[in-house]
Design brief:
The protein contains 15 helices and 8 strands. By secondary structure, the protein is α/β, with parallel strands linked by helices. The protein has 2 domains: about 40 residues; about 300 residues, Alpha/Beta hydrolase fold, catalytic domain (Rossmann fold). It has an 8-stranded mixed sheet with strand order 1-2-4-3-5-6-7-8, with helices on both faces. Helix 13 links the parallel strand 7 and strand 8. Helix 4 crosses helix 5. The termini are far apart.
């Protein structure tokens, strides 16, 4: 036997050993993966249970939508509707709920379809247009169709708010009458929006996303959420778990890839939604956490101020990032109330 033949046999044996090793790994991993894919969602914390118990639901096109409503300031007719971001829920507003109650007669928040305690149908084509219709349906359900409402939004909710603004200014059937709009840390401009790597993969890979949505676990989720909070304003372990519990409720992790198509929708409908901002006569305000890696400073802020000239702006402390209402609830609330009280 020549040296070349011997080397070829060695390589063949090595390849065979490697195939056998991977086979064993696969035989071990498959049952472990099967077990993991059936891990039940975590139980609601007392705080999250209290939030859920204080809410209600209404039917929207065959699905149940969760909302919270409370009555506050006597002698005021002002209503504020709170629109949350991705991938969390109305619970994002828990730190400023009671102070808002002291200023507004009615404070209303909902979990968008596919989020939090609302139904999460699948397969389903989630869209910003549908979520705007959910908000309109909630307003009608609560008997607020004849009221002028103030909208306070964050992240994903910003884009829903812009569709509502467009419908309001165009006087579309069933539209809200908007008294004011306050946005916060949302990807208003596709050109200054930088989604996280996992978000990009989930929205773009039809092959990987069904597997990845099942493999997302608490450590991976909490690491991703931590990246969009400031280093000095990180959520507590309990807050991480509450966010994750909201995602896992009704298997929400399995629809994240479908919901993330909103990033593509922002690009496709930029003219409609940015145009609504630039043409409206509704009072506008932006509350901005400048450490935000998703809508980074100074690119985002400079573009916003150049394009949306009628809007006032509150820039929070330099260590506040993508979730300003959770990272700096006092600063966020003061900025919002200063805006509301200015007109």
């Amino acid at each position: 036997m020549t040296r070349c033949d011997s080397a070829g046999e060695d390589r063949g044996s090595l390849r065979g050993a490697m195939r056998e090793w991977w086979l064993h790994v696969g035989l071990i991993c498959v049952p472990l993966l099967a077990v993991y894919l059936h891990v039940p969602p975590p139980r609601l914390s007392p705080a999250l249970h209290g939030w859920h118990s204080a809410g209600g639901s209404f039917a929207f096109r065959g699905s149940s939508v969760f909302y919270r409503e409370s009555f506050g300031a006597v002698g005021s007719s002002d209503v504020v509707i709170l629109l949350h971001g991705f991938p969390t829920s109305s619970y994002d507003w828990n730190k400023i709920w009671e102070p808002l109650n002291q200023r507004f007669n009615r404070v209303v928040a909902l979990d968008f379809l596919g989020f939090g305690f609302s139904d999460k149908p699948r397969p389903h084509r989630y869209s910003i247009f549908e979520q705007a219709s959910v908000v309109e349906a909630l307003v009608a359900h609560l008997g607020l169709s004849d009221h002028r409402v103030n909208i306070l939004s964050h992240d994903y909710g910003d884009t829903v708010a812009l569709e509502l603004l467009y419908r309001s200014d165009q006087k579309r059937s069933g539209h809200l009458t908007i008294n004011s709009l306050c946005l916060s840390n949302g990807g208003i401009f596709p050109e200054t929006h930088y989604p996280r790597l996992l978000q990009k993969v989930l929205k773009d890979s039809s092959f990987l996303s069904p597997l990845l949505t099942r493999l997302i676990n608490f450590p991976l989720f909490s690491r991703g959420i931590g990246e969009v909070f400031g280093p000095h304003t990180q959520p507590t372990d309990a807050e991480h778990w509450d966010m994750w519990t909201g995602v896992r409720f009704n298997d929400g992790n399995l629809v994240m890839d479908s919901i993330l198509q909103y990033i593509n929708q922002r690009l496709e409908h930029r003219e409609r939604w940015v145009g609504a901002l630039t043409s409206t006569q509704v009072p506008l305000h932006l509350i901005y956490g400048p450490l935000d890696p998703v809508n980074p400073h100074p690119q985002f802020l400079h573009l916003y101020q150049a394009v949306v000239r009628r809007s006032t702006v509150s820039v929070l402390d330099e260590h506040i990032s993508h979730y300003p209402q959770l990272e700096d609830p006092t600063g966020f609330l003061n900025a919002y109330l200063n805006f509301i009280n200015s007109f």
